[in-house]
Amino acid sequence: MSQKTSKMTALWNLVRECKKCQIASLARNKVFGDGNVSSKVMFVGEGPGMDEDSTGHPFVGNAGRILSGAMRDAGIDRDKTFITNIVRCHPCKDPLTGNGNRKPTAEEIAACKPWLIEQIMVIRPNAIVALGGTAFEGLIGSSAAGEPILNLFGDSQRMTFSNGNEIFGTQLVVVCHPQFLGYNENNPGHIRVHGYEMSYPELRAEYSEVFKRVWLWAHQ
User: Fold this and answer.
1) Number of domains observed in the structure of the chain
2) Cα–Cα distance for residue pair 155/18, rounded to 1 Å
3) What does the pLDDT read at residue 144?
4) Does the pLDDT at position 43 exceed 90?
5) In 10 A of CB 121, how many CB atoms?
6) What is the DSSP letter of 87?
7) Domain CATH for 14
8) Is the full-model pTM beyond 0.90?
């Protein structure tokens, strides 16, 4: 077992016992993350949905289908990436049944972010792709000041993370959440991306192009 694998396994064992926020006690399964712990690129989403809560794996529902397709179109083997979320437990709408999906609260993100930071410290990726506004704001630690995520689509910035013992810097790239593409798969209209009119098929193609550029840059 590699040192990274050993560290990640120890971290996963701690996450299993986590009760830092209210959704931790409601989760059917904690969704720690999947993939290659030595990956050069991490993908970070918003949080587990009902499908992920049921299986314990990230991005296995419709959003996962879109994400996997975009990776495939970019020539990326999903198993060679590492995929996780801002929160590791399902933010459900109904706490009695555990059903329905909602955006995690700021308190839930703050409680879970240290686990994400520790994952970043183990993997030490050359780039992190934030999948959507919630992931982006959670990673940068502040609001995007109301800026539509499509105005930031494909943008990159240098980020530094710290767990109190060590500091690690990497490149952060932002795209929309794959579920947004899923919702608009058959939409014949257009949308503004960085001020340019783009059809939804064009946006999906650009999604894969961003993945491809990030992947190639991270492996230089």
Assistant:
1) 1
2) 33
3) 60
4) yes
5) 17
6) -
7) 3.40.470.10
8) yes
